[in-house]
Amino acid sequence: MRRVVVTGLGIASSIGVGAAEFAEALRAGRSGAHPITAFPTEGFEHTNACEVLDYPAAQWIRELDPAELGRATRFAVGCARMALEDAGIAVAAARLLRSIIAVGTTNGESREVEVQVEHQHATGTVAIDPGAARRHRSSRMSVDIARELGCTLTEAVTIPTACAAGNYAIGYGFEAVAAGDADLALCGGADALGRNTFAGFYRLGTIAPELCRPFDRNRKGILTGEGGAILVLETLDAAVARGAHIYAELLGYGLSCDASHPVAPERDSVARCMTRAHAQAGITPDQVDFISAHGTGTKANDLTEVAAIRQVFGAAPPPTVSIKSMLGHAMGAASALAAAACALSLSTGFIPPTINHTEPDPEIDIDCVPNTARTADLRIAQNNALAFGGNNSVLIMGRPR
């Protein structure tokens, strides 16, 4: 197995676009929460979300017409080119490499369907926009990256394992590069804010009135979010040979699917997923310096995830944070954005905070790095992702050696 490293980051988030802006926002504990503009919110008592307001799609999508792409696909395609440029890999050079393009998502381009249904309902027509029929396919999120970059020696896959999909996609690319099946991987996740998802979580009673407060006694639920993150993976040897900046090394990952409940996480399955990730990475729990938790800010998630962490790590787990307190829950992009945050943390030596923290929850009693980022000498970070249907994925990343 070849050693695999992260050399490029393409990021579109509610708190910043690009690696530098995203890292600065994480350090500052910036919140992306604000009133929703993506769709009408009449009838909803709570209307905050974490929307990406300033995403310059045309700056990063140069071969395809951004207007012909759905919003989530624009995040994926733009972040892929952004990541390649951040890695210092010319597009012409990328075309010559055997590659994997893997994008995780929860909703794909369901927003396109929503818009057409709203139009039909408002006008009484059965006609739809032919462009929407082309844009709505989830497969375009990965295929259009290949089209934009002109990559033909590639396998393009879209992975729909809900809110763990970003980690799944990164793990897929990691295995391909480590095994020698590919020399380059562009992988991560993307999702766009939509009324269908917002309404679904609202009906479940899990939308917070204003802010997301993971691990806090006064938590009220999640805020939905959106965005994208694509990571460039290549072998350590290739990165060193071309003098690339290395953010982090991917050490291993674990998967589990318990299928015990449609929406509730299952402690033993989550613990099993973490143990599998540690085994593949060749580490023990005491070597992990911090955990980027799934951390949605719901009681069911917070209590179950922390119970699973204690099952693996014992009574004194490492600092455990949730960047969803800043970004909201970006669905399929969530764990990819968290993976990018882990890579930035390892390369620059800080732990992002869990913001909006007012009162510790005595049922949890963990160090969530409340409200203020912490300077730290980090070696290994763990990135948790838990999804509906019992889909779990855990990434282990290390400081470049």
Which features would summarize this protein structure in a list?
401 residues; single chain; 11-stranded mixed sheet; 20% strand
Can you put this structure into words, describing what you see?
With 401 residues, the chain is an alpha/beta fold. It has helices at residues 19-28, 57-60, 71-87, 91-94, 110-123, 130-135, 140-149, 165-179, 195-203, 236-241, 267-281, 299-313, 324-327, 334-348; strands spanning 4-13, 16-17, 33-35, 48-50, 99-104, 154-159, 184-191, 227-235, 248-257, 290-292, 320-321, 350-351, 374-375, 380-386, 391-398. The strands form three sheets. Strands 1, 2, 5, 6, 7, 8, 9, 10, 11, 14 and 15 form an eleven-stranded mixed β-sheet that branches. The protein has a two-stranded antiparallel sheet with strand order 3-4. Strands 12-13 form a two-stranded antiparallel ribbon. Strand 14 (380-386) and strand 15 (391-398) form a beta hairpin. The two termini are 17 Å apart. The mean pLDDT is 95.
* Number of DSSP-assigned strands: 15
Structural class by secondary-structure content? alpha/beta
Q: Please give the alpha-carbon distance between the first and last residues.
A: 17 Å
The topology string of helices and strands comes to EEHEEHHHEHHHEHEHEHEHEHEHHEEEE
| Helical residues, percent | 25-40%
Mean pLDDT metric: 95
Return residue spans where pLDDT drops below 50 for at least 5 consecutive residues.
Answer: none
Individual helix count: 14
Characterize the main sheet. Answer: 11 strands, mixed
> Which value, in Å, is the CA radius of gyration?
20 Å
Identify the overall geometry: globular
